[in-house]
């Protein structure tokens, strides 16, 4: 049995345990190229003051809506505030979203994509997170009209707000409104008003699996066999270009 087999079996055993012992048949996976990186959304990477981060968030959201209108089709007007946030995230703007996937191979790709020698994969029980965070034994369905990002975090008029911001992170199922979100089996956790890494909140919700350096060549072969690459995960011209550059060692 190879070291890759041992690593893969550890992941498989954890998935089996979550399903059997914790009634979690759809765990979330997140691959990091550096295991020292914190599970913290990009909105909070440089700004630890909540009021400053909230002000930046409002400015980015408002200006993105305004400046991107000419780029989008008429269908953009039918998108809700979560759809806008997903699009902002996928185009590199800081948000309070933390990217996860329901596909282990996708997480493995992102763990290895930057060529780090100390990558890792986090596995999260999203239902357990919500049980501890908001006393909900389910993953939040962000497609429902009674759960609105704009009202939670952007709306400034107290009389217009339908909901109050939550404090601790939650897990959500998004509408797969962006091609990358669909291709990557993307899901999210959403930080609330408490700024600290996800792994600093609750014990028992998630576990980290370090990827040994010796495993990386076999892991990369596994990704090739599974057809997981830049173009399958980023189905656009940028993704195709990155795929071809890697394929031909350019």
Describe the structure.
Helix content is 41%, strand content 12%. The chain is α+β, with helices and mostly antiparallel strands and 250 residues long. The protein has one domain (3-215). The strands form two sheets. Strands 2-6-5-4 form a four-stranded mixed β-sheet. Strands 1-3-7 form a three-stranded antiparallel β-sheet. Helix 6 (149-154) links the parallel strand 4 and strand 5. It is globular. It starts with a helix and ends with a helix. The model has no long low-confidence stretch (mean pLDDT 91).
What is the secondary structure topology, with strand pairs?
Elements: H1 3-22, E1 28-32, H2 50-68, H3 81-90, E2 97-101, H4 104-112, E3 120-124, H5 126-134, E4 140-141, H6 149-154, E5 170-173, H7 179-183, E6 186-190, E7 206-210, H8 216-225, H9 230-233, H10 237-247
Parallel strand pairs: 4-5
Antiparallel strand pairs: 1-3, 2-6, 3-7, 5-6
Helix pairs in contact: 4-8
Instruction: Please provide the count of β strands.
Output: 7
Largest sheet: 4 strands, mixed
- Please identify the structural class as seen in this structure: alpha+beta
Helix count equals 10
State the domain count. Answer: 1
Strand content: 5-15%
Which outline best applies? globular
Radius of gyration, in angstroms, nearest whole number? 19 Å
| Quaternary structure classification | single chain
**Approximately how much helix is present in the residues?**
40-55%
Between the first and last Cα atoms, what is the distance in angstroms?
Answer: 35 Å
Strands ordered across the widest β-sheet: 2-6-5-4
**Order of helical and strand elements:** HEHHEHEHEHEHEEHHH
Could you list the spans in which at least 5 consecutive residues all have pLDDT below 50?
none
Mean pLDDT: 91
